[in-house]
């Protein structure tokens, strides 16, 4: 069975949420403020179901630069990226930033989508497509299918669904064996149920009645119930969006960025040995000892970057480094995440963890 997450990316007001609604029938903007302002602020979710029973989860991320942390949170679990670009506006600043982030996180599959096709003529569409192709050269999206759609008229939506289906079927299966790991991107309470957390299951299989630990803070509890695509299930598997109803854990003990794991299966890190690669477009110099913000899954924390192969690093360069964290982090070797400058707050590069417990 295919278990995968599709995620949107792109500039604010380029039609990502409308695109999801056209594909799934679900309005992913759930907050009153989002509906009032016509602007995605938080992560949104919807199931994509095909006639043959194939299913995938879709994550809708904000396009506004003010909510880039939420975008980073949603991008962390993506298997397939939908890079949406409005045909009447073309490439914009957040388009390029989102594309950088997806590459840094190791996303390797995706589709290019020109939205709002009903607002331009054929010549305008051709020009927008050429510009988009040029923009993605040298990235994981080079050579990927480009589709032209209009969520308002339905143009291109069936073709996009079929392209997504083909891409899903070609994905390698996620590893469902071993300890489960669920980074929490939402934490809330429901009357009659109690504490509920949601996230994308990165690894393993989680089952009803499993004992759990909240890393890195340490409280322990038990799985009271599980939901996938809004339906009660006995077990959830890596690659699925999961809602977990917890017993024995209070809402006040949890926050976005915590990770749900089997008790004792992971030791939180305060030091990370990493391979650090700066973006080619990073125009400043990163000096050893610089304080940075680390975005790992749904978690964000401050750290100092100690470079191990010199005192400074320029755009496009890489080196081995050690990150000295200011608070513990639930991480494993092989995880990828994004580093951002504190001021100005923009991505500077990506990191792959080599050792989550170095000397």
Task: Kindly list the characteristics that best describe this protein.
359 residues, 17% helix, alpha+beta, 8-stranded antiparallel beta sheet
By DSSP, the count of extended strands is: 24
**Which overall shape is indicated by the principal axes computed on the Cα atoms?**
globular
Percent of residues in helical segments? Answer: 10-25%
Distance N terminus to C terminus? 41 Å
The helix/strand order is EHHEEHEHEHEHEEEEEEEEEEEEEEEEEE
In terms of quaternary structure, the protein is single chain
Radius of gyration: 20 Å
Q: How confident is the prediction overall: mean pLDDT?
A: 88
Low-confidence stretches: none
Helix-strand category:
alpha+beta
Count the helices. How many? 6
Beta content comes to 35-45%
Biggest sheet, in brief? 8 strands, antiparallel
